[in-house]
Specification:
Spore Coat Polysaccharide Biosynthesis Protein SpsA, Chain A, alpha/beta, TATA-Binding Protein, globular, 7-stranded mixed beta sheet, 4-stranded antiparallel beta sheet
Length: 341
């Protein structure tokens, strides 16, 4: 099966993190989010993909080329004007031809078993099969209501709490038939959730959904991106090349953790602190003493050095063996922001 990756976003809400980079190129645990998506596809037996690009397409195309170095076969379609999610995929019609294909957003991190989604699609022969995820805070996503046979019966786009009827949200990962895509008009912007899916239901096309186990995160905001970084460090998501933390031996007596510290020499500590503050504001940072973040993974404090153009990163992980890893993770984050400030 082929895949189409929607990788055209600029990521305006994530600008304080991405700078001028396309959103799918933001770094996570040593490589761009887009490369983690390539890893996910390959893990599920998909090595052919077409990337729908719009914002700064040369950044992605020049880095990955034909995909051979990644063990992929990549093609690209570049939009001069944004066409919406369904419109961008419809513009790849010459790529998918007359065969069903998978669609995935280029700005999500997940470790789903996509093979099970594809198998369900083939088993039922539906026009669309959607991957759903149980989310405790579904307000910023589209909620999908299904019957007992997993047929989609209703959508509620970004509801307030009074309109929440389920915790299952639309992940933007679909297996789609060419017949469904033929309903997309070629001459105007068209979106999957707002336009195509309601139209398919109105015209009697069957759509089904599969609740996926595992991890999924849309990194569209600094808060979500920061949380995803912590989840990756904590082993909550399966990523290639990122080791899962070793379980603590039940008889091990945890020693007090002195923490770890890193110093980063920058061009302007005041400017860098401004960008850091903006980036981590949505993540619930405290600004009373530098920039401080606290959660179950550990505590991190980033503060300007008093005597030179530098910032100090102090990290204390809940797991004593991981303070250095936590500090190094934030050092990379700070370096990336400084290069864009």
């Amino acid at each position: 099966m082929k895949a189409i990756i929607l990788a055209g976003g600029e990521g305006t809400r994530l600008k304080s993190v991405t700078g001028d980079l396309p959103k799918p190129m933001v770094g996570l645990c040593g490589k761009p989010v887009l490369e983690h998506i390539f890893d996910l596809l390959k893990r599920n037996g998909i090595t052919d993909a077409c990337l729908a690009l719009h914002y700064r397409p040369e950044v992605i195309r020049d880095r990955y080329g034909d995909g051979q170095a990644l063990g992929m076969r990549l093609e690209y379609r570049i939009e001069t004007a944004q066409r919406g999610t369904a419109g961008a995929v419809r513009a790849c019609a010459d790529y998918y031809g007359d065969r069903d294909f998978l669609v995935i957003a280029g700005d999500c991190i997940c470790d789903f078993d996509l093979k099970s989604l594809i198998e369900a699609h083939h088993r039922h022969g539906s026009a669309v099969t959607m991957a759903l995820y149980a989310h405790e805070q579904p307000l910023q996503y589209g909620i999908v209501l299904t019957d007992r046979q997993d047929r989609v019966v209703s959508f509620v786009e970004k509801p307030d709490w009074e309109r929440v009827v389920s915790d299952l949200v639309n992940t933007g990962i679909y297996v789609i038939s060419p017949a469904a895509m033929a309903q997309v008009p070629p001459d105007r912007p068209y979106d999957f959730a707002k336009d195509l899916f309601p139209l398919l239901m109105q015209r009697g096309y069957e759509m089904r959904a599969v609740r996926m186990d595992g991890y999924w995160c849309d990194i569209g905001t600094p808060r979500a991106y920061y949380q995803c970084c912590l989840d990756a460090l904590d082993g909550r998501v399966r990523l290639e090349g990122v080791a899962k933390p070793e379980p603590e031996h039940p008889g091990y007596a945890r020693r007090p953790d002195a923490g770890a510290q890193r110093v980063y020499v920058c061009r302007s500590r005041a400017r860098l602190m401004r960008v850091l503050s903006q980036s981590l504001m949505e993540a619930g940072a405290d600004f009373s003493d530098g920039v401080a973040l606290r959660n179950d993974v550990g505590n991190v404090r980033i503060a300007p050095a008093p005597d030179r153009e530098a910032v100090t990163i102090s990290a204390q992980a809940a797991d004593p063996s991981r303070s250095a890893e936590l500090a190094d993770g934030f050092l990379g984050f700070v370096k990336g922001l400084d290069s864009q400030a």
